[in-house]
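user: can you give me the structure for this one chain? tokens are fine.
assistant: on it. calling the predictor now.
[tool input]
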Amino acid sequence: MAKGAKTKKVGRPKAKWKSKANAERIFEEMRGGLSLREICFRRGLPLAKVYEWLNGEEFRDNYADAQTQRADFFFDEIIKIADEVAEDKDAVAAARLKIDTRKWMMGRMCPKKYADKVNVDVNGALKETHDGKIDIAPTDSAIQGVNAILDAIIRAGKSDGVEDAGKK
């Protein structure tokens, strides 16, 4: 190959929509309350591929931040819905459904901030008693191995501090 000649890149070309600027536009739309599904549908983008791309290491934190801000958008929307509801039975029921749906979504998008908190309180004392005896089954292979080692030490007479309880 001649010096200075361009080489062709091997493999599939990078999708034209995969750019940092496009990712920022997507995140901005998410912060405005749109779902990634809605954004992809409007722009004609492949949803599954966009999920893979945005959940990748490069954009993971930005995606999570956009989801948190999307939850904040719904928080503000809930207040607006509650403030503007008409005072008739059907309108209140419809508003309650909208509010509950948004609250559920917020709990999934940003659980640390908006999910229902569950407190577990365990009362009572744990009392554990022991008589001081430890029974180890002689069939336990580890104990049998230790016994074999101790027997060998005793037979060799190389230990002053070990007594053979069976010979007393």
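assistant: here you go. Residues 154 and 163 are 7 Å apart (CA to CA). The longest helix spans residues 60-84.
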